[in-house]
């Protein structure tokens, strides 16, 4: 199936609904289409909750951007916005394990210099020598004119999930009918 920007955004958001708390934006935040938040709390205790052995909080903030053409300047503006806003939303402290901040770009065309910049993007922070966890920055782009995806090294997992959602889920659904 060939995707347009609108159909790719709709398919991704429909898939993310099961896992994320989604805040959608109409025209007031363009090119930002949605912010998806994921929170997980894990803990281990012995006999009662008072005897806690460990606990870990994990969170992810995914920013879905929809644009006609992704330029290097636009990429850098969106990257900086996602990083700043994601760090404001993060709950860093004891018990924090990790935070993933993930801008996802859906565009018709991605400029070569923007592809190079996003592939070179390496943003990682540890908090209190990793005692309070870390933050990793994932970036992924889906170019609808070529139906190709690009990501930075940390964002390969996001690219894989997007490929499964956009290209493999529809094939499975056909067999179920």
Q: What would you note in describing this structure?
A:
It is a single chain. Strands 1, 2, 3, 4, 5, 6, 7 and 8 form an eight-stranded mixed beta sheet that branches. It is built from four helices and eight strands; from the N terminus they run H-E-E-E-H-E-H-E-E-E-E-H. Helix 2 (72-89) packs parallel to helix 3 (112-120). The chain starts with a helix and ends with a helix. 34% of the residues lie in helices and 38% in strands. It is globular, with a radius of gyration of 18 Å. Strand 7 (140-143) and strand 8 (148-151) form a beta hairpin. The protein has one domain. With 177 residues, the protein is α/β, with parallel strands linked by helices.
Number of domains: 1
Low-confidence stretches: 172-177
The share of residues in extended strands comes to 35-45%
- The residue fraction in helices comes out at 25-40%
Number of helices: 4
Mean pLDDT: 90
User: What is the rounded Rg?
Assistant: 18 Å
Total beta strands? 8
Question: What structural category do the secondary elements indicate?
Answer: alpha/beta
> N-to-C terminal Cα separation, in Å?
17 Å
How can the largest sheet be summarized?
8 strands, mixed
């Amino acid at each position: 199936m060939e995707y347009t920007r609108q159909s790719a955004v709709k398919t991704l958001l429909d898939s993310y609904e099961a896992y994320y708390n989604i805040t959608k934006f109409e025209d007031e935040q363009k090119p930002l289409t949605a912010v998806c938040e994921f929170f997980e709390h894990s803990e281990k205790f012995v006999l009662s909750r008072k005897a806690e052995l460990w606990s870990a909080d994990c969170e992810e903030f995914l920013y879905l951007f929809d644009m006609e053409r992704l330029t290097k300047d636009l990429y850098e503006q969106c990257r900086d916005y996602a990083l700043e806003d994601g760090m404001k939303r993060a709950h860093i402290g004891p018990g924090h394990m990790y935070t993933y901040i993930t801008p996802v770009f859906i565009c018709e065309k991605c400029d070569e210099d923007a592809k190079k910049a996003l592939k070179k993007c390496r943003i990682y922070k540890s908090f209190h020598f990793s005692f309070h966890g870390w933050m990793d920055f994932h970036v992924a782009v889906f170019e609808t004119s070529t139906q190709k995806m690009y990501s930075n090294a940390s964002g390969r997992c996001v690219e894989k999930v997007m490929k499964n959602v956009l290209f493999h889920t529809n094939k499975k659904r056909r067999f179920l009918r």
